[in-house]
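Hi D.,

Good news: the full-assembly prediction came through. Inputs first.
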Amino acid sequence: MAIFIDENTRLLVQGITGRDGSFHARQMMEYGTKVVGGVTPGKGGQRFEGPNGQTVPVFNTMDRAVAETGANASVIYVPPAAAADAIMEAVDAGVKFVVAITEGIPVLDMARVYPYVVERGARLLGPNCPGALAPGKCKVGIMPGQIAKPGPVGVVSRSGTLTYEVVYQLTNAGIGQSTCVGIGGDPIIGTNFIDCLAAFEADEETRAIVLIGEIGGTDEQEAARYIRERVTKPVVAFIAGQTAPPGRRMGHAGAIISGSAGTAAEKIQAFEENGVRVARRPSDVVGLIREVL
Amino acid sequence: MNIHEYQAKEILRRYGIPVPPGEVATTPEEAEAIARSLGGTVVVKAQVHAGGRGKAGGVKLAATPEEARAHAERILGMEIKGLKVQKVLVTPAEEITSESYVGVIVDRASKRPVFMVSREGGVDIEEVAATKPEAIRKLTVDPRYGLLPHQAYWLAVELYQEPAQQKACALILRQLYTAFVESGASLAEINPLITTPTGEVKAIDAKMNIDDNELFRRPEIAALRDVSAEPPSETQAREAGLSYIKLDGNIGAVVNGAGLAMATMDLIKFYGGEPANFLDIGGSSNPEKVVNALKIITSDPNVRVILFNIFGGITRCDDVANGIVEATKRIDIKVPLVIRLTGTNEQAAVQILEKAGFRATTSMDDVVQEAVKLARA
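Then the structure:
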């Protein structure tokens, strides 16, 4: 088992003929993900050439693509101006799990997209996220597959490369992962920490959870309360931005300290008060996880 | 992106919100001339991207044009929260009967725009939120329908008793929401929204923050960026596609990804060092980005060592290695470089670096400890 994706995921790539879309479609196929096709308006009827002589069909619309391939998931690599509509197109076509990799989608676009997705019973991961990786089974997005290995730890993070760092250190220490999920750093995201914690709690393969947060917002504090009330599996947390000066935006739109809510100190305190152990350094995650496994 | 008060007011005026007249001066002489043409008592207001301008002495009443000139002379060039004042707004002083706060932000928790209004205007709303949360009325907007007439009216009756003022306020709120959406803002606030002795409702201060992700489709808003109001190194970084914030330490850091960049700063501090900057070179980096990053970091005289922490995913380590080699040919780097590279194309990167006489490690803890040691040497 894994969360959100597994060996039964049948994936469409929206923007499959673009620079990033084609590169990562090949990487995902190489990893073993069942990529069943792609969509690029105007290029329907072509075949996309994957690795090792594999080819998949390209469609003009998600509607056709889903009807002909039986896809149940999609991943989006289209530019920001078209990304909001691409997400809504995917759910209109009946896809229930949509991953938006695109960085730079206006937040007011996402404010309209989010209820649209929820009302159609679908789950959105992202935008501006690295996607999800179920080691040995399926990779959706851009995470480097070679740094992960199958195992008992669920990883959920707001960050991209910092997630890779932690996964890499776990793998080097011989500790594998059930699923690694990057939820993205934007102010409005489809799947938050709590959604992932609930899924990991229900996942038989997952025995412990690593949560990687950042300064800004109150998602980590809400996650901390949720853990105390609903999560029986051990959780280890790390928060980036412990030394960030207040009021400055550090790259992610989400990472802004505004008012009193959102400092690393508050988040660490919230976790510790709710029985979650917090690593001071990324490398300390390994030791803390080893203790709870 | 931050815009100035005078720019926010121009936008609000365009949407019909009553905003008193006013003009911007960059010299005391201009301030005097504007005060003379406005007539009567004026306010001279520092235009910087920082709160607390009044407390810092950046907002002054002037009864005469000469006094306006004298205030402008003191305010122009003044530093407020580290930012140098380059412009002042000169606007008529208003007689105030009441001060309210009205604002709209994009709220992470509800994933929607949220209006906040309060009768406690004219002060920092975050302070009101902390000390007197019951004084703030909030209303969540469904962005697919916008602020509905009855919702605007609900908020207006929270603020005013007079039917005419309620009506005027409801209209202002709807205009503010339209301005917020059509400008691609993440925040738009009027603080204070005043009433005058004659019963008018007016916006005498305004603030708008623009979502950077909107700028590609709103060139007229993007053109409002005032590069003179931000540190030159940050302008240079933005133009090079980098995210950079200057800090006070001596360890320059080049990292890919915001989370890893913050974690690197934290680790530098953990081992007793001080970061000189936050710098995220982003994904899909090309060698040119690395060259630009090194140019910016080497222009900071405090930097005693430069640390690279690269985890290749979309970013290819060989691109970064080529950038480092290229940069050392083009720029005279006088401080040591310590490099950590791992992930996509790591082997190729190590070969490129070794050929050029550099060493690279794969451990983040090791490279940070080395940088801290060198910064102390």
